[in-house]
Amino acid sequence: MRAMNWCALTVGLGLALAAVQADAQGAREPGARIDAPGAGVTSRPEVRGTREPGARVTTSDTATAARVRAGTIEVKDLRFGSRDAEQLAIGRAVFTGFARENGVVVADRLTIEDVTGRLATQSWRIPRLAFDQVRLPEELYRALAEGAATTRPWADLFREVVAETATIDTITMSDKTLATEQVLGGFVMTRLARGIVGEARLASITMTAAPDPKQPVRLTTGAIRYRDLDLGESLRMFTGGGDGTPKRVMASAVLERLEITAPDATVRLGTYEIGATTLAVPADPLPAEVFALGATMQSGGDPDPAILAKVVRWYRGVLRGLKVESVTLRDIAVNGPDADLRIGGVTLAGLVPSGFDLFELRDVAVKTPDGPARLARFAIERVSFAALLDLALDAAESGRDPDIDPAKILDLVPRIGAVRLAGLDAKTPEGPVSLGGFDIEMDWTARLPDRLAVAVSRLAVPIDPSGPEDGRDQLARLGYRVLRGDLAARLRLLAADKALVLDDTTVAVDDVGRIEATLRLDGIDVDAALADPDRADEILEREARLGRASLTLTDLGFAERFVADLARRTGAAPQALRDELATKTRAEMAEALGDAVTPAALDRLADFLRRPGRIAVTVTPRPGQTVRLGELNAGGADLLGRLRIEIDTAPR
Questions:
Q1: Quick one: angle between helices 10-20 and 138-146, nearest 10?
Q2: In 3-state terms, what secondary structure has residue 111?
Q3: Phi-psi region of 191 (alpha: psi -120 to 50; beta: other; left: phi over 0)
Q4: Treating both helix axes as pointing N-terminal to C-terminal, what angle do 574-593 and 599-610 enclose, rounded to 10 degrees?
Q5: How many CA atoms within 13 Å lie on the side-chain side of 308?
Q6: Once rounded to an integer, what is the mean pLDDT over residues 24-30?
Q7: Angstrom distances, CA of residue 35 to CA of 20, 126, 147, 343, 405
Q8: What is the pLDDT of residues 267-309, one digit of tens each?
Q9: Where are the beta strands (DSSP E) in 339-399?
Q10: pLDDT in tens, 123-172
Q11: Rounded mean pLDDT, 181-206
Q12: How many CB atoms neighbour CB 274 within 10 A?
């Protein structure tokens, strides 16, 4: 969000340093140019100073006036940059209470008026800014005032600048290409020392964007508060000299209110907070071509490949050390003819260019044609897309489409640690649907997850008796109006054992039943399958083999309802129906499974059908036999001859 771009707040302070250079013009002839660090700066100065209160100092006494213990120095009409591509102009700068103290230049107040600037398609204007109790090192002053060479980098010298307060009434910024205008009002900064601003407050921002004059967009904010802004380190981005070491450049920023008004919608935000921000500044400064590149791309032109590559290389270095502790938005409302959305909070934590620790939505409410829907929480945890980012940067730097090796396609898939959803309530044509929780968790140590776990809790789905004949009508006939249930499943990839294991898997539906399942497949050679993606299915079917499978079913009321309904429709006695079903099913299973199951096991199956409770079926290969994954799909007598099926039952 451009409104929260704290770097814009360096404008005022940077202009103050430029204005200090205005003092230099008092020691030169009017209109003289400054070479060395002040190159490209011209002025028409008026210099006033006092040895004694009220005493006048002439222009010819400038060198003396610059060394008095107290006085006033005024400079007018400063120009920075070439006349053909002017970047900065200062109408008037005044040092009040100017002095030198032990190698430090001091001023009680520095006032700068009528500041205008232009950079590519952007321009800005500051009517007035003022700094109180300003102190800067003699070396920096001489470099600015006299064009003297410095022995230390400018960013290091800037860290020795001190100012108690700084105030800017308004900053007006516009962009011709984007057809935007921003007005930043009421900026107050306190405690600048060692290049760090202790606190800063911006009273408001108003922005108007009108790429289409008939559909303008307006943005307004309340106050924005910043804490511990490291302007010195940020300055290195433009001057160069960084060492690539991550350093904190901001402790926090808080925006108190934001409203965006568009022709078809209004967006309101209660607060917007950015936590501690770390940045690694590279040795090279921001490429000057970046502004021309931005203007070209904004206007729809094709960027110069060489310039684009240079800019991408620079940003790649910056991105390596970028980290934002947290971004939090609260009390979001979106209103419009087709929108009515409320979000209590949005959090993005542990943000780095290659991923984040947490993305979270809380207390979401939206109106739909069927009625209101609410969601207590949605979260995505531990996301990494480093390989995908590198691919995009490589493509941008080279100017060529990415060349993706099919064998490495999985390396580009973002890794997600968890997806969570909780507290869902929604109206549907069939009735209200609710969900207590939905969780997917993944553990990664290689190219595929080592563990995948899924859990669904307190799911409630309505059964409409008048609905289509897709099975729900039969459930309604059995007396079910709402199905409530839970689900849990865990899938583990044991790479060292070349095995895939499904366990801790349960589906339970109230008043219906519970199913528990386990499965183990051996011979899962993931590396071989990934090395040859086109033949992955063939490899797995050929090598994977059954280790063990089990299924346990517990009746929780469905069997009784089913038999009772069948008895009502046929007029038969319930127990007679159970006996008939048991006898028929036993005979069918004996014929279908053959020697894979013993007569005693079939008797237990029949007993379960007569008196439903709990039944467990376990399938394993017979000793010395191997059952391939592909054979399980084919079936047949030969397969059954190599399997052993065990059945156990227990009362409910």
A1: 70
A2: strand
A3: left
A4: 150
A5: 16
A6: 34
A7: 16, 26, 6, 56, 54
A8: 999 999 999 999 998 888 888 777 777 767 766 777 888 888 8
A9: 339-351, 355-368, 371-384
A10: 889 999 999 999 988 888 777 656 678 888 877 888 888 999 999 999 99
A11: 93
A12: 22
Banded model confidence at residue 39, pLDDT cuts 50, 70, 90: very low
Average confidence (pLDDT) over 168-183: 87
| Residue that the structure tokens 């007396």 belong to | 479
Contact, 227 vs 273, CB < 8 A?
no
Q: What is the token pair recorded at 441?
A: 């968790």
Helix, strand, coil proportions of the chain in percent (round to 5)?
Answer: 30, 45, 25
Instruction: Name the one residue in this structure whose structure tokens are 């890794």.
Output: 415
Confidence of residue 54 (pLDDT cuts 50, 70, 90): very low
Alpha-helical regions (H) of 399-499: 472-477
Distance CA 108, CA 121 (A): 36
DSSP 69: S
Tell me how crowded residue 213 is: count the other CB atoms within 10 A of its CB. 7
| Residue 165 contacts residue 133 (beta carbons within 8 Å) | yes
Q: Where are the alpha helices (DSSP H) in 75-230?
A: 138-146, 154-158
> 């500051």: which residue's tokens?
126
CA distances (Å), 638 to each of 596, 626, 634, 643, in order? 10, 12, 10, 9
Helix (H) / strand (E) element for 308: namely helix 305-320
Residue 386 tokens, joined: 């480093």
pLDDT of 147 reads 62
What pLDDT is recorded for position 113? 92
Residue range 182-195: mean pLDDT, rounded = 92
d(CA 526, CA 542): 13
Residue carrying structure tokens 């700066």: 41
What is the rounded radius of gyration, in angstroms, for the C-alpha atoms of the chain?
Answer: 37
Give the N- to C-terminal CA distance of the chain in Å, as an integer: 61
C-alpha 281/C-alpha 31 separation (Å) is 37
Contact present, 384 and 390 (Cβ < 8 Å): no
**Taking 80 as the threshold, does the pLDDT of residue 443 lie above it?**
yes
For residue 445, the tally of other CB atoms under 10 A from its CB is: 10
CA-nearest of 604, 599, 600 to 614 is 604
Q: Are 611 and 604 in contact (CB under 8 A)?
A: no
Q: Two tokens at 157?
A: 């010298």
